[in-house]
Amino acid sequence: MRLTRFADSQGNVRLGIDQGDGTAEILARSLFDSKHLLEQTGKVVDIHRRLAPLQPSNIFCIGLNYREHAKESGQPIPEAPVVFMKPTTTVCHPGEPIHIPKCCVHGPEVDYECELAVVIGVETRNATEKDALRSIYGYTCANDVSARKWQRNNGSQWIRGKSFDTFCPLGPVLLTADEIPDPQTLAIKTVLNGQVMQSHTTADMIFSVAKIISFLSQDTTLLPGTVILTGTPQGVGVARKPPVFLKPGDEVVVEIEKIGKLVNPVV
C-alpha cells in the first residue's frame, strides 16, 4: 500500500492511499493505530499539498554504511554501525525548499545524500536480526542533507552539521513493508539538476536493515514512528573533484525503486 500524508483543498491534514494521479483515498484511522485497522472510506480527494508521510518520533541515522561510499571517503569499513541522530525539526516535506543555513558562512558546504528510510511500526526492543524486519511499518525516501564543514571541521560536529532546519526531506509516500520483502535489493539514486550524481543499490550496504534494527534496539526502545536513515551510496558532492555542493536554484531528486521520487528545490 502506498500511503500518503497530505493537505486537502481546505487545508485539512489527511492520511490516504495514493492513487497515482494526484488524488488519494482518505483513510479513517491514524498511521500507527495498526496497519491492519486502517479503514478505507471510499472517498477520493485531490492532494493539494503533499507532506512528509509521517511526523517521526525519533530519527536515527547510520553513517558510512555503503562499501563504495566508505571507499570514496577514504575511511575503513566500520566494525559496527556508525550512529548519529537528527532532530525531528529537520523534516522537510516533498516539494518544500531545502534552506542553505545562514550560519554556513565559510563558503559552499551543503551536500545531498540519498537514503532508504525505514519506519518502525511497533515498539521494538532487543530485536534479533532474524525477527527485525517484522518491526517495520514501511519505507520511504530520505535526503540526509549535510553541512560538511560543520560536520568535519568545527569539532567533528556530526549531529550539528546534519541538524539544520529542512535537512531531512522525507517522502513522497510511505510504502508498507509487505511491498518490499527484501530491502537489500533496491536501486537508489540522486539526481541534481537533471544529472545523476549517485546511482547504486542497497545490496552494497555494509550492515543490512535487519542488522541495523537489531543493533539500535539493544536495550533501547524504538518507538512507533521511529525513522532510520540507512546510509548513502557513493557519489556525494564532497567526494567529487571538484566538489559539488547545493546552491540556491538547484533541484535535488532522491529516487528509490518501488517507492518513487522525492523532489526538493534549494533556496
Short recap of the structure:
The protein has 267 residues and is mostly beta strands.
Average pLDDT reading: 95
Shape: globular
Fraction in helix: under 10%
What percent of residues are in strands?
Answer: 35-45%
- Number of helices in the DSSP assignment: 4
Largest sheet entry: 12 strands, mixed
Q: For the CA atoms, what is the radius of gyration?
A: 18 Å
**H and E order:** EEEEEEHEEEEEEHHEEEHEEE
Quote the distance from N terminus to C terminus: 33 Å
How many strand elements?
18
Q: Which regions contain 5 or more consecutive residues with pLDDT less than 50?
A: none
Class from helix and strand fractions: mainly beta
Question: What would your notes on this structure say?
Answer:
With 267 residues, the chain is mainly beta. The chain contains four helices and 18 strands. The protein has helices at residues 67-72, 148-153, 158-161, 209-216; strands spanning 2-7, 13-18, 23-27, 40-46, 49-51, 58-63, 82-86, 91-92, 110-111, 114-120, 136-143, 146-147, 168-176, 187-192, 195-201, 226-229, 251-256, 260-265. Strands 1, 2, 3, 4, 5, 6, 7, 8, 10, 11, 13 and 16 form a twelve-stranded mixed beta sheet that branches. Strands 15-14-17-18 form a four-stranded antiparallel beta sheet, with no helix packed on it. A two-stranded antiparallel ribbon has the order 9-12. Strand 1 and strand 2 (13-18) form a beta hairpin. The chain is globular and about 50 Å long. The model has no long low-confidence stretch (mean pLDDT 95).
